[in-house]
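Question: I have long wanted to understand how a fold can be written as C-alpha coordinates. Here is the record:
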Amino acid sequence: MIRLLLAGYLVVEIAAFAALTYFLGFGWALLITLGAAAIGFAVLGRRARGLVSDLRRASRREPTDGEPASDTALFAGAAVFTILPGVVSTIVGLALMTRPVRSALHPVIDRGIARRTSLIMAGVPGGVGGRYVDGTVEGDVIDQTSDVVDLTPRRPDGTVYVDLPSLPQPPLTRP
Protein backbone atom coordinates (compact mmCIF):
# COMPACT_ATOMS: atom_id res chain seq x y z
CA MET A 1 0.00 0.00 0.00
CA ILE A 2 2.84 2.38 0.91
CA ARG A 3 4.61 1.62 -2.37
CA LEU A 4 1.44 2.33 -4.31
CA LEU A 5 0.98 5.68 -2.56
CA LEU A 6 4.63 6.58 -3.15
CA ALA A 7 4.35 5.66 -6.82
CA GLY A 8 1.14 7.73 -7.16
CA TYR A 9 2.81 10.70 -5.49
CA LEU A 10 5.80 10.49 -7.84
CA VAL A 11 3.60 10.20 -10.94
CA VAL A 12 1.44 13.19 -9.95
CA GLU A 13 4.40 15.42 -9.05
CA ILE A 14 6.38 14.51 -12.17
CA ALA A 15 3.32 15.10 -14.34
CA ALA A 16 2.72 18.49 -12.70
CA PHE A 17 6.35 19.53 -13.18
CA ALA A 18 6.29 18.29 -16.79
CA ALA A 19 3.11 20.30 -17.45
CA LEU A 20 4.66 23.42 -15.91
CA THR A 21 7.80 22.89 -17.99
CA TYR A 22 5.80 22.38 -21.18
CA PHE A 23 3.61 25.45 -20.75
CA LEU A 24 6.02 27.87 -19.01
CA GLY A 25 9.53 26.56 -19.59
CA PHE A 26 12.01 24.83 -17.29
CA GLY A 27 13.19 28.00 -15.52
CA TRP A 28 9.68 29.13 -14.60
CA ALA A 29 8.69 25.60 -13.55
CA LEU A 30 11.71 25.39 -11.25
CA LEU A 31 11.03 28.88 -9.87
CA ILE A 32 7.36 28.04 -9.18
CA THR A 33 8.33 24.77 -7.48
CA LEU A 34 10.90 26.48 -5.25
CA GLY A 35 8.49 29.38 -4.55
CA ALA A 36 5.72 26.97 -3.57
CA ALA A 37 8.10 25.21 -1.17
CA ALA A 38 9.19 28.54 0.36
CA ILE A 39 5.58 29.70 0.81
CA GLY A 40 4.69 26.31 2.28
CA PHE A 41 7.49 26.47 4.83
CA ALA A 42 6.59 30.05 5.81
CA VAL A 43 2.92 29.19 6.36
CA LEU A 44 3.90 25.97 8.13
CA GLY A 45 6.04 27.88 10.63
CA ARG A 46 3.30 30.42 11.30
CA ARG A 47 0.69 27.71 11.78
CA ALA A 48 3.01 25.73 14.06
CA ARG A 49 3.34 28.69 16.41
CA GLY A 50 -0.45 29.07 16.53
CA LEU A 51 -0.93 25.36 17.21
CA VAL A 52 1.61 25.38 20.03
CA SER A 53 -0.18 28.29 21.71
CA ASP A 54 -3.54 26.46 21.31
CA LEU A 55 -2.07 23.33 22.89
CA ARG A 56 -0.67 25.36 25.80
CA ARG A 57 -4.07 26.95 26.41
CA ALA A 58 -5.77 23.54 26.20
CA SER A 59 -3.32 22.09 28.73
CA ARG A 60 -4.26 24.90 31.14
CA ARG A 61 -7.94 24.15 30.45
CA GLU A 62 -8.47 27.55 28.83
CA PRO A 63 -10.83 27.93 25.87
CA THR A 64 -9.17 27.51 22.48
CA ASP A 65 -10.16 28.41 18.95
CA GLY A 66 -10.25 24.81 17.72
CA GLU A 67 -10.09 21.21 18.77
CA PRO A 68 -6.49 20.46 19.79
CA ALA A 69 -6.48 16.74 18.94
CA SER A 70 -8.01 17.20 15.49
CA ASP A 71 -5.96 20.30 14.78
CA THR A 72 -2.76 18.47 15.72
CA ALA A 73 -3.58 15.54 13.43
CA LEU A 74 -4.50 17.84 10.54
CA PHE A 75 -1.39 19.92 11.12
CA ALA A 76 0.78 16.79 11.02
CA GLY A 77 -0.75 15.85 7.66
CA ALA A 78 -0.34 19.38 6.35
CA ALA A 79 3.29 19.42 7.51
CA VAL A 80 4.04 16.18 5.68
CA PHE A 81 2.45 17.43 2.46
CA THR A 82 4.16 20.82 2.73
CA ILE A 83 7.60 19.35 3.36
CA LEU A 84 7.35 16.86 0.48
CA PRO A 85 8.93 18.33 -2.65
CA GLY A 86 6.57 19.30 -5.44
CA VAL A 87 3.91 21.82 -6.33
CA VAL A 88 0.90 19.52 -5.91
CA SER A 89 1.88 18.29 -2.44
CA THR A 90 2.58 21.85 -1.30
CA ILE A 91 -0.85 22.99 -2.53
CA VAL A 92 -2.50 20.06 -0.71
CA GLY A 93 -0.56 20.91 2.47
CA LEU A 94 -1.56 24.57 2.26
CA ALA A 95 -5.18 23.56 1.65
CA LEU A 96 -5.12 21.41 4.80
CA MET A 97 -4.12 24.51 6.77
CA THR A 98 -7.14 26.57 5.70
CA ARG A 99 -10.07 26.92 8.08
CA PRO A 100 -12.81 25.61 5.70
CA VAL A 101 -10.90 22.41 4.93
CA ARG A 102 -10.06 21.85 8.60
CA SER A 103 -13.69 22.43 9.57
CA ALA A 104 -14.84 19.91 6.99
CA LEU A 105 -12.29 17.31 8.10
CA HIS A 106 -12.75 17.69 11.89
CA PRO A 107 -15.60 15.12 12.14
CA VAL A 108 -13.62 12.59 10.10
CA ILE A 109 -10.51 13.05 12.22
CA ASP A 110 -12.52 12.91 15.47
CA ARG A 111 -14.11 9.60 14.42
CA GLY A 112 -10.67 8.25 13.56
CA ILE A 113 -9.29 9.33 16.93
CA ALA A 114 -12.24 7.74 18.73
CA ARG A 115 -11.84 4.50 16.76
CA ARG A 116 -8.09 4.41 17.43
CA THR A 117 -8.67 5.09 21.13
CA SER A 118 -11.21 2.27 21.39
CA LEU A 119 -8.76 -0.09 19.68
CA ILE A 120 -6.03 0.90 22.11
CA MET A 121 -8.40 0.50 25.04
CA ALA A 122 -9.34 -2.99 23.83
CA GLY A 123 -6.17 -4.36 25.38
CA VAL A 124 -6.67 -2.59 28.72
CA PRO A 125 -8.45 -4.59 31.43
CA GLY A 126 -11.86 -3.06 31.85
CA GLY A 127 -11.48 -1.11 28.62
CA VAL A 128 -13.74 -1.36 25.60
CA GLY A 129 -13.53 -4.98 24.49
CA GLY A 130 -11.18 -5.73 27.40
CA ARG A 131 -10.84 -8.93 29.38
CA TYR A 132 -14.02 -8.51 31.39
CA VAL A 133 -17.16 -10.20 30.15
CA ASP A 134 -20.64 -8.99 30.98
CA GLY A 135 -22.65 -12.13 31.54
CA THR A 136 -23.03 -15.16 33.75
CA VAL A 137 -20.25 -17.42 34.93
CA GLU A 138 -20.86 -21.07 35.64
CA GLY A 139 -19.01 -22.83 38.43
CA ASP A 140 -18.30 -22.58 42.12
CA VAL A 141 -17.18 -19.36 43.71
CA ILE A 142 -14.57 -19.91 46.38
CA ASP A 143 -14.37 -17.17 48.96
CA GLN A 144 -10.82 -16.56 50.03
CA THR A 145 -9.72 -14.04 52.55
CA SER A 146 -6.59 -12.09 51.99
CA ASP A 147 -3.80 -11.56 54.49
CA VAL A 148 -3.01 -8.20 52.92
CA VAL A 149 -3.97 -5.27 55.10
CA ASP A 150 -3.96 -1.73 53.77
CA LEU A 151 -2.05 0.43 56.26
CA THR A 152 -1.96 3.51 54.08
CA PRO A 153 -2.73 6.61 56.16
CA ARG A 154 -5.85 8.22 54.76
CA ARG A 155 -7.77 11.42 55.38
CA PRO A 156 -11.45 11.26 56.39
CA ASP A 157 -12.49 11.83 52.75
CA GLY A 158 -10.52 8.74 51.65
CA THR A 159 -7.61 10.49 49.96
CA VAL A 160 -4.12 9.31 50.76
CA TYR A 161 -2.15 11.29 53.30
CA VAL A 162 1.55 11.48 52.52
CA ASP A 163 3.88 12.85 55.15
CA LEU A 164 6.86 14.28 53.28
CA PRO A 165 9.91 14.98 55.40
CA SER A 166 10.93 18.60 55.42
CA LEU A 167 14.25 19.63 54.00
CA PRO A 168 16.96 20.67 56.43
CA GLN A 169 17.33 24.37 56.93
CA PRO A 170 20.45 25.95 55.44
CA PRO A 171 22.97 27.19 57.98
CA LEU A 172 22.71 30.85 58.87
CA THR A 173 25.48 32.91 57.41
CA ARG A 174 26.74 36.08 59.02
CA PRO A 175 27.39 39.12 56.88
